[in-house]
Design brief:
215 residues, extended, ribonucleoprotein, Rib_uL2_dom2, RNA binding
Length: 215
């Protein structure tokens, strides 16, 4: 189901956008999932693949681990140092792997990548906190409106009770409203971060200009 109004659901347009994507869009499209330990550590699910990342192949018949030696965005493939094959003439060549078939076990970290992980992790934590807060508010409203029902009305234990009370649709609309409020809070948080960055840049520019005038 399509949720973004700016993205077409027509296959021909999706293919055209995929094959005509610029290098920045291809960088995002070539994102690999992080391992379970890294997801818990950074609160980030995926990261654009980078040369020198240590990855593990999780799909296919050759499930090996190695280091990324090359990223070919024109073909949406990567090359791993331990994945090679020998041709009939005796030449050894690397085998291309699609980025969706690997997961990152040890990312290559530099200043920019550490900042990206921190930014995404902070945004994810703020989103979880806002969702938890909204859930608490909705639970309070729900308990006041339906004192005889459990808040976990859609679990297997309480389905019969919900059907007897004939009020599952109202609760469904409430939960949809919770998700909408959470998404709005996330957009508001992102906008506030952009505004803060713009203010910091303006302050730095004013300081540099004042220093230049003083000279």
């Amino acid at each position: 189901m399509k949720f973004n109004p700016r993205v077409s659901s027509q296959p021909r347009k999706a293919r055209k956008a995929f094959y005509n994507a610029n290098k920045n869009q291809r960088r995002i499209l070539m994102s690999a999932r992080l391992s379970k330990e890294l997801r818990e550590k950074y609160s980030v699910k995926a990261l654009p693949i980078h040369k020198d990342d240590e990855v593990k192949i999780i799909r296919g018949h050759q499930k090996i681990a190695g280091k990324v030696t090359g990223v070919r965005r024109s073909q949406y493939v990567i090359y791993i140092d331990k994945l090679t094959k020998t041709k009939n003439n005796g030449q050894t060549v690397q085998v291309p792997v699609h980025v969706a078939n690997v997961e990152i076990t040890k990312p290559f970290l530099n200043k920019d990548r550490e900042a990206l992980l921190k930014k995404r992790g902070d945004a994810a934590k703020a989103y979880k906190e806002s969702v938890a807060k909204k859930n608490e508010q909705v639970e309070e409203v729900f308990k006041k409106a339906y004192p005889t029902l459990s808040f976990d009305i859609f679990s297997s234990k309480n389905k019969v009770e919900a059907i007897k009370e004939k009020k599952p649709l109202r609760l469904a609309s409430r939960l949809i409203a919770v998700k909408a409020m959470a998404n709005a809070d996330r957009a508001k948080y992102t906008a506030s971060l952009k505004l803060k960055n713009a203010r910091d840049q303006l302050a730095a520019y004013k300081a540099a200009l004042a220093k230049k005038i003083a000279k």
